[in-house]
């Protein structure tokens, strides 16, 4: 089974920075041993890393809990909280996921000071970015089922346009993980707002964040 770990960092960034290299080595080892499907940090609206999103491949949820607690981020107090949710990976576009991978030499954020009154220009300001939407549905399952056909039709449309590269409905139908490709947060937000699940009130809550994809085990997705 696949378990999503949606984790938020503590405010003390020194703890995060001190354990980042060990976490990345841990994640690489999990991926090589077919325990990690996909993963990377998620960012806030100011472009600052606020947490990490990982998808494990495990036999039971207890195993995912053990993997989460054994992560150097958790062992060194860099994680404020995390949520583990079983999901089913659907509508995955392996080629676009692979294209979204961040090269190893660009994984550390630049820290040079910015000049006052200057408009920062990032190297990839106009490039396609990856965004993740962690959505929870309303408790009325009959309403979710009623809107599902329209939602699925919408998914097929944006998938065909290369805007949706993976969907991971939660196993208990309480929500889903959506991974989009867009040139800006506004463009990604439009994909959320135009979804019938949003328009018809199925999304009780959702968290849309830019996601920097650091690792992918394509075989675990293709062989679901």
From TrEMBL:
<feature type="domain" description="YCII-related">
    <location>
        <begin position="1"/>
        <end position="86"/>
    </location>
</feature>
<dbReference type="Pfam" id="PF03795">
    <property type="entry name" value="YCII"/>
</dbReference>
<feature type="domain" description="YCII-related">
    <location>
        <begin position="131"/>
        <end position="212"/>
    </location>
</feature>
<dbReference type="InterPro" id="IPR011008">
    <property type="entry name" value="Dimeric_a/b-barrel"/>
</dbReference>
<dbReference type="InterPro" id="IPR005545">
    <property type="entry name" value="YCII"/>
</dbReference>
<protein>
    <recommendedName>
        <fullName>YCII-related domain-containing protein</fullName>
    </recommendedName>
</protein>
<comment type="similarity">
    <text>Belongs to the YciI family.</text>
</comment>
